[in-house]
Amino acid sequence: MTDIVTDEAVAPGARGPLRTAVIFNPVRVEDIVERRAVVDAALTAAGWPVPVWMETTEDDPGAGQARRAIAEGAQVVFVCGGDGTVRSCVEGVAGTGAALAVLPAGTGNLLATNLGLPDDPAAGVQVVLEAGRRRIDIGEVDGQAFAVMAGMGFDAALLDDASTTLKAKIGPVAYVLSALQHLKDRRMRVQIRIDDQPPARHRARGVVIGNVGRLQGGVRLLADAEPDSGQLDVAVLDPRHVRHWIQLAWGVVRRRKDVAHLQVLRGARIVVTSDHDEARQLDGDVISPGRSLDVTVRPGALELCVPQPEESADLTEGADRLE
Fold first, then answer.
1. Would you tell me which of 48, 90, 115, 292 could form a disulfide with 43, CB atoms 3.0–4.6 Å apart?
2. Letter string b/e over residues 211-241, b meaning 16 or more CB atoms within 10 A of that residue's CB
3. Whole-prediction pTM value?
4. Helix H segments across the chain?
5. Are both 197 and 265 inside the same structural domain?
6. First to last CA, the chain
7. Same domain as 280, residue 262
């Protein structure tokens, strides 16, 4: 696992402040006026320039704005929104040399949950000022990036059916209600190829390819997944009926080493091929259905602003207690 490092360019006594931009989703961030005031004030108090603020649009959910901000000189790009906005900005920032800082909003925020990033915008700015950085891997599917998980089958179908209105009203519970509707969906017939190994045949309700391990509510589906390992973990879920789903869920919640109806694989290149078109998703964004999910890891492609080690450990322990 890559260590958290301090960027000398912004360490105490070093060269000075950095130029920043904030990419925000106006649909997901209801308190944008208050957030903007907090972020601007925190950066100004530290002697940093006021950031450039850029809205996402339906046509461009963040990647284009992030690239434009970097082209105009931003060295740190804040992203304020849900998982979809974060994923798009990951795509725009990865490989550029700029750093990404997450200010969570919306209902998901799985990257923030997995890496101990604070919800409070003032604390999020402090993370950037303290200059903790971590290089993490990203996955890529058909030129699109993801930092959390890609999926085919069950998880993509439930995400597709989770109502935006319902998510706004009851939050993550909306995903649970959607999941209940898909417990008896048809099992897929898939072939999974890991790196250069021969493809293996599987029956599955869904296949989840994770760069990190935690799902909504802090549940760790992939116990050994690390975002800087250079590999992705693959969960093959194959419960046949409701009792199997209960056994699988219980094993995951109890952090069993061997979970019933769940097989875990690992590799740097994963190709999942089905005999039918299946629902697919990247970091909660549903993409067009297809018969394959071809995933490649880009090791260390994203520089992420993270809490310094002591603070990060405290936040992680707090997340574990919630589990």
1. 48
2. bbbbbbeeebbbeebbbbbebbbbbbbbbee
3. 0.84
4. 32-45, 63-71, 83-93, 110-115, 121-130, 154-161, 164-170, 173-181, 242-253, 309-322
5. yes
6. 23
7. yes
Contact 134, 306 (CB under 8 A): yes
Most confident of 157-166, 231-240, 253-262: 231-240
Q: What percent of the chain has pLDDT over 70?
A: 82
Same domain, 27 and 169: no
Tell me, what CATH number does 312's domain have?
A: 3.40.50.10330
77 and 174 in a common domain: no
Q: Which two tokens stand for residue 283?
A: 């970091």
How many angstroms separate the CA atoms of 184 and 171, rounded? 24
Look up residue 293 and give its amino acid: L
Please give the helix or strand (H or E) that residue 300 lies within, else none: strand 285-305
Domain that holds residue 121: 5-140+300-322
Per-residue pLDDT band for 143 (boundaries 50, 70, 90) equals very high
Q: What value does the mean pLDDT take over residues 317-323?
A: 46
> Tokens for 316?
């992680």
Provide the residue type at 237 as one letter: L
- 282 and 233 part of one domain: yes
- Domain with residue 211: its CATH number is 2.60.200.40
Q: What share of the chain is helix, strand, coil (3-state, %, to 5)?
A: 35, 35, 35
Give how many domains the chain has, as a whole number: 2
Residue 138 in contact with residue 113, Cβ under 8 Å? no
Q: Specify the 3-state DSSP secondary structure of 219.
A: coil
* Residues 55 and 157 placed together within one structural domain of the fold: no
**What residue type is 192 in one-letter code?**
I
What is the tens place of the pLDDT at every residue in 35-86?
999 999 999 999 999 999 999 999 999 999 999 999 999 999 999 998 999 9
Q: How far apart are CA 257 and CA 297, in angstroms?
A: 25
For residues 169-180, one letter each, b for 16 or more C-beta atoms within 10 angstroms of the residue's C-beta and e for the rest, the string is: eeeeebbeebbe
- Taking CA atoms, 85 is separated from 76, 98, 117, 246, in Å, by 16, 17, 16, 32
